[in-house]
Amino acid sequence: MDISEINSPYLQKHIETLKNENEDLKKAFECSYDGIWICDSEGVTLSINKAIERITGLKKEEVTGRNMIELVEKGIFDQSATLKALEEKNTVTIMQKVISGISTIVTANPIFDQSGNIKKVISNVRDITELIQLREQLQKLEEEKNKYQSELNSLLHHIEEVNDIVLKSPNMKKVIEKVMQVAKYDTTVVLLGESGTGKEVMAQLIHDSSPRKEKGEFIRVNCSAIPAELLESEMFGYESGAFTGAKKSGKPGLIELAHDGTLFLDEIGELPLNIQAKFLRAIQEKEIMRLGGVTPIKVNFRIIAATNRNLNEMVASGAFREDLFYRLHVVPVTIPPLRSRKDDIPKLIESFTNTFNKYYHTEKCFSPEAIRMLIDYPWPGNVRELKNIVERMFVTTSSDTIYQKDLPDFLLSHAKPGASYKNGSLKEQLAQYERELLQNTLRVSTTTYEAAALLGIDQSTVVRKMKKYQLSL
């Protein structure tokens, strides 16, 4: 090639284009957010971009010309993707730790010449330290969640054992979780729900789960059971000679006895208006005056009220003081009726059965069919009514097993027509009955072995039929 060819406009333009492309490649190399590390076929560092310096804290002059073998031996890296790519003659991706403590993910790509020999290795480096930290934080949060869930389950189990509260239905579990949350705060709680739902048991649970358990007593006042003419003296107490028949020594009232503890006002809706006014003053002033007394007595008590009446309607009709209503209605907790927590009925029956077996020294149990009928009944009297029926069956049934036929007539009259069967062939009806029988038995069993014992079949048969009918404990 002579000098005229070198100086030709076409060649000069081509050279200029190559220069511009080379500059663009250099800029792209330096501007890349990911680190780029280039080594020769021996693993010697040819160049790194600014992202490598930012990610690893290493300077270009510190590593250029140095072999990756040396950098690993010096502890700059724990391992090298470049060396692995040279060894395997293939693309390699590894997790790499830098001496600065940074964690990176490195992908090394070997570049081959026309003869198939490696001439360079280009590695892409990305900082994943933050990603690892986030993963560790997520794992820690998951562990804490599992820990708290385990503690909650343990607490709920403890509540079931100690307080005889059944917690199988989701809506009842939500009630207990809310109650346990407010129990630790010294706030007023009003328990709402039908008669017999267990409001007193819930009030006792709140007291037992609060700091006041160690300081004072749980005092229950049934506002509907005490005659109106005696209610004031019972609640506020009296001094000697306050009225005819009064004790010479006087008597502290129930409010006074609840000092540092919890005052449970059951059936608060039955509280007479004149007592409501005095009670409101006791709440506001944190003091009471005994009947016939002249010296106020300081009291510090927590209030838990309960009612099966609609207090809003009573306020509207003037039967309940509005100012007292708002004093009491701080944290309302509605306890669901038994008919809306059918899942709890088998466990309640089991709990009451265990209680009465111990009390009466018996070994009675309910048949699955009897349990099915008890589940279907609407229970207007709620848990209290169920407990009474279970006890009635214990004292009126001679056999150890209480069958459907042994149940009271009013329960039998509520049985759904054809509840155990559906239209279909004999095989279909038998399958339906088998499914319902197994389902009812599982409701009162804690293990498949217990269900098998109740049904008089092998445990493996129970498991197989549970799978067949898609049932679970």
From TrEMBL:
InterPro entries: AAA+_ATPase (IPR003593), AAA_lid_NorR (IPR058031), Homeodomain-like_sf (IPR009057), HTH_TyrR (IPR030828), P-loop_NTPase (IPR027417), PAS (IPR000014), PAS-assoc_C (IPR000700), PAS-like_dom_sf (IPR035965)
Residue ranges the record marks as coiled coil: 124-158
Limits of the PAC domain: 88-140
Boundaries of every Sigma-54 factor interaction domain copy: 165-395
Top-level taxon in the UniProt lineage: Bacteria
Keyword Chaperone: no
Keywords per UniProt: Aromatic hydrocarbons catabolism, ATP-binding, Coiled coil, Nucleotide-binding, Transcription, Transcription regulation
All residue ranges annotated as the PAS domain in the record: 21-69
Name of the featured protein: HTH-type transcriptional regulatory protein TyrR
Organism: Siminovitchia terrae
